[in-house]
Write a structure and sequence with these properties.
Blueprint: H1 3-25, H2 28-35, H3 39-45, H4 49-73, H5 78-94, H6 100-104, H7 112-137, H8 141-165, H9 171-186
Length: 198
């Protein structure tokens, strides 16, 4: 198998094991067995369990950030932007792979490299959103950033809560509810060119 394809296969197998067992309980033996390879083959691609975990975590964090960026760039309509961005987080936590557990429920956040990756989701998503808020409202960078971090926090926390606590509400309905709440708050900041707010 070509090296690149083997790496993808190993990451997929590792994701299944880490999601099911957590970092500390997962063993490289389990991951190699799941992938159908020998342990030496696994170590050729990833020198340690932490390296493997960090590769998965980086991949997962980058996916959320890229999806957030695409959601914001998909339209110029701010209400639709809020809606699309909120849905990114709900779709992510609802994904069957369970990858969100690596990002939002990691049992390894005392490890600086892991914490840095996890914090990157909030930081980079908030940076993207803050640029839109600043551009539209003319608010100072610090104020735009605070609002952006608040929106990201609302999306992350509510999506995780929905997944674990609100089985009676489907994903679309849950994302719509929280999106409306976010929109009602953020639309109170008028556009800097004094255009009427939708």
């Amino acid at each position: 198998m070509p090296r690149r394809e083997r790496r993808v296969q190993l990451l997929e197998s590792a994701l299944e094991v880490f999601v099911a067992q957590g970092y500390h309980a997962a063993a490289m033996d389990d991951i190699a067995e799941r992938a159908g390879v020998s342990k030496p083959v696994l170590y050729q691609h990833f020198p340690s369990k932490l390296d493997l975990y960090l590769a998965l975590l980086e991949q997962s964090c980058t996916a959320i950030i890229d999806n957030c960026r695409q959601a914001l760039e998909s339209t110029e309509d701010n209400r639709q932007r809020v809606d699309a961005t909120m849905k990114v987080f709900y779709e992510y936590v609802a994904n069957d792979s369970g990858a969100f557990r690596l990002v939002f429920e990691s049992d390894l956040t005392n490890e600086p490299a892991v914490r840095e990756q996890v914090e990157r989701v909030t930081t980079e998503c908030a940076d993207i959103i803050a640029r839109v808020i600043h551009g539209d409202t003319g608010l100072p960078d610090e104020a735009a950033r605070l609002l952006a971090v608040s929106l990201v926090g609302m999306a992350q926390v509510s999506a995780r809560f929905w997944l674990s606590e609100t089985a009676g509400i489907d994903r679309q309905q849950a994302a719509d509810l929280v999106s409306r709440l976010a929109w009602r708050g953020i639309r109170g900041y008028p556009r800097s060119d004094d255009q009427p707010v939708d």
